[in-house]
Amino acid sequence: MSEVYATRRSRLRDHFTAAGTTAALVTRPANVRYLAAAAPQGSALLLGKREDLLVCTGPPEDRPCEGRPDENLRLHVLPPNGVGAGAGAGGDAALAAADLAVAQDADSLAVEEHHLTVARHRAITAVAPGLRLGDLGAAVEQLRVVKDEEEISCLRIGAEIADQALGELLESILVGRTERHLALELERRLVDHGADGPAFPTSVATGPNSGRRGHRPTDRRVEEGDFLTVCLGATYRGYRCEIGRTFVIGTSPADWQIELYDLVFAAQRAGRESLAPGAAYRDVDRAARHVLDSAGYAEALPPLTGHGVGLEIDEEPQLAPSAMGKLDACVPVTVEPGVHLPGRGGVRIDDTLVVRPEADGGPELLTITTKELLAL
Amino acid sequence: MSEVYATRRSRLRDHFTAAGTTAALVTRPANVRYLAAAAPQGSALLLGKREDLLVCTGPPEDRPCEGRPDENLRLHVLPPNGVGAGAGAGGDAALAAADLAVAQDADSLAVEEHHLTVARHRAITAVAPGLRLGDLGAAVEQLRVVKDEEEISCLRIGAEIADQALGELLESILVGRTERHLALELERRLVDHGADGPAFPTSVATGPNSGRRGHRPTDRRVEEGDFLTVCLGATYRGYRCEIGRTFVIGTSPADWQIELYDLVFAAQRAGRESLAPGAAYRDVDRAARHVLDSAGYAEALPPLTGHGVGLEIDEEPQLAPSAMGKLDACVPVTVEPGVHLPGRGGVRIDDTLVVRPEADGGPELLTITTKELLAL
Question: Which of A101, A212, A282, B286 has the most beta carbons within 10 angstroms of its beta carbon?
């Protein structure tokens, strides 16, 4: 297993040495975890001239839930002198790593300028004035886009857990319960079924709130006749998936509810069916968006209809009108169009799928809960 | 109520204009919320030359739980074109705000270099090349240290909620339940009693895990004879408090448990009793630390014995050996010494208190759950 991490680091090293840099400093937690198997709080990863070091602000065994660092990697634990989370976790480790880079005779260091703060960057220049600082850019994020089967397997287990939690909720009585309670109940079930925790704050939206992307649960109670939109995900071994479904409460959905549901369903299907290696991100977005657009919902549409998932819940690619790039095989993405009508509510349907070539059966659906309109 | 926010902004303006800057850009979410009453995701606050603007990436009414922005503040909502959380929330708003600063004829802009990334800083330079960028430093964090009675009242309510949730847990059967379950149960109860949510991930630590600061709950079950350490907090209207207690499971604590508990209790009391306006941060830390130190636990000690709380769970001041500065009245802090003995477990006792002058009765204890050693 640990060769995986060494291989990833070696690919990154190829990248920054080709760009003329001797060493690299990785500070974004999901990137550290991707390359080191673990990202203890406040840690920084140095890919040095002579060896790679994971710099931690405390012994990683104090935080077993954050994963065990790759054994091929040397650990460098900083002494605990007045480290405060308020002072900005990770700062000491980044400075110490820059110092260690110099000790390895590095003359240049690529840093993650999109993650490192200006203050930290200045501090590195101050502790290591001889070091030429460059930009690693989103190199690690780019490596992370295409997943290996081990990573996909973690996403698949996470999706099963989310499906189970959602399935159990649907068997319980919903009317009269608040959005907040339902969300907490779902999060408890995720953990019951083996998740590390929720992949993101669980969203439960009823009545006029339904269909809203990222709605934070309120004290509104489920009522007869409501749309109920639920969006949740599990984190499993660090990997995050998501599923979203909309239901109707009571025995007979209103006509407008059935129409809106069928429309969003058609849009979501169009998005799913357009997932293929080589498909442009914007074309997948357009496939889903076009269905809603031509029904007159252009105004109500979200900025994106899907996104990559992995060690973060929202990573590259973005399935959006202005996104550049094409899908590869083994890229997991969400397809999640929705329509929200102010004052009335709406529908959102969200799956996590893995892009696969047609020869392998086409896109692999990880979140298998039914997308029929259930009346609960 | 909204004058509070205008007054805060005006104090900040005095600060940066005195430092020779025309305008300021605030991006750290807790700082935006402090000055604008709300910090919609991805928002940035511009204190401009002619007027103040809250720049949002979407209408704030889409996120009612994040608070309503101060009505005296002009909102500037960006069009939703391909904004992706993965691309770094807040980026578009920061760039737009810099642009708006220029439109107001500002020639210089103080930014939060400890929050703004290097990449964003460069992007601002690119969109507004005529703008001289300075550093706002931790000016807003410094304003936030001393709380007004409205803020303290939010902390007090949060502490009551945490006390209630903890009190209810103690009435239930604990043996056989896992750390994860107990933590989830506590978080559900926090929300039941009116919290916005937990102030930080609830920590439940049993047996050998007990006494560990920031322990993440595992699947270990509570056993007879265990120490059980619980650390939780509620967020109420954005304000975060914390409480930590250690209990013993079963009818008769072992001698080492009673001894260790009494010692940590004495340390925590010494820390609490040293809280007074004018007391040096390091002296409060030393008061608590000294008790543990002289009992031979110097090795087992954490880097800090307390910290400020407010819109963030860990803010200034740090009560640590190398901290510089003195307490003021109306500063809420935690006092939370603990000892963890590897393989055996330990004790941690944590209160949130507000520094008050002796004439007002001395430090105000917000978290009032008993600190007697309860055998459950």
Answer: A101
